[in-house]
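Entry:
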Amino acid sequence: MADAQLAVRDVHGWYGESHVLHGMTFEVKPGEVVTLLGRNGAGKTTTMRAIMGMLASRKGSITYGGKELINLKSNRIARQGIAYCPEERGVFASLNVKENLLLPPVVKSGGLDLDKIFELFPNLRERLASQGTKLSGGEQQMLAIARILRTGAKLLLLDEPTEGLAPVIVQQIGNTIRMLREQGFTILLVEQNFHFAATVADRHYVVEHGRVIDMIPNSALDANRGKLQTYLGV
């Protein structure tokens, strides 16, 4: 894992007394898009929360750029240049689109300015004065991704960004992820839809019962499709 930008080693995590991560180990190299695939309850979202310091009890090692994060609080982890887009999106009903977009602080230089963001998500420019929760589900997802791009974070944790979205919006999200990779972002993606994941990712880690049980390069996906369908129950 010497050349990894993000290295997760033997991470265990708990919700109260419930032991949910059982030795998660994987890596993400600079500029990669890597997915965590698995069934509901496998521990994918919990892994992202552990990386961000949002899990009350965790142990093991999580390093970013060689720096240990396991004992840091969430705000300090974010300031290392890591941004998290949760599945529930976290759009504030009391704020309009512009206010939602400008809410997260800039933690590093190199974030996208608003003009660049509107090139990626032109719908948002047209809806700046709209209440955040009045947007469609697809527009809310665009907003949730767009606001973390301002922060200067270079590692993006995206949790189920295509969940429940129309195919045309899924395609747009895929185009955005590929564009971000070309611009040097590193992305860890939680997905259940491996058909979508196959269009954007370099590698796939299969998660089951809070641990990684397999790693499949995207180039070997066709050869492993049957095994992957068994893992995912599809």
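The chain is about 30% helix and 25% strand.
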